[in-house]
Amino acid sequence: KNMTLKMGLVKWYSQSEGFGIISPLDGGNDIYVNRSGIANSRKKLLTEGQRVEFSTYLGSRGLTAEDVIAY
Q1: What are the CA-CA distances from residue 57 to residues 6, 22, 66 (Å)?
Q2: pTM of this prediction?
């Protein structure tokens, strides 16, 4: 588990499927995000282009975002 917080932008997010992709601002690889990883939204909703802060862990789908805080 990587406790370092990263900043990124939501590349896309499917509300119906409950997952999406975050592009890190540091230019690294895109990161998978699941609805369960969204920390501060009761609706568990992200929107395209939204700024987010997150940590990452290596999950079954590769690098995965958790503790996602949307601004």
Answers
A1: 12, 14, 7
A2: 0.89
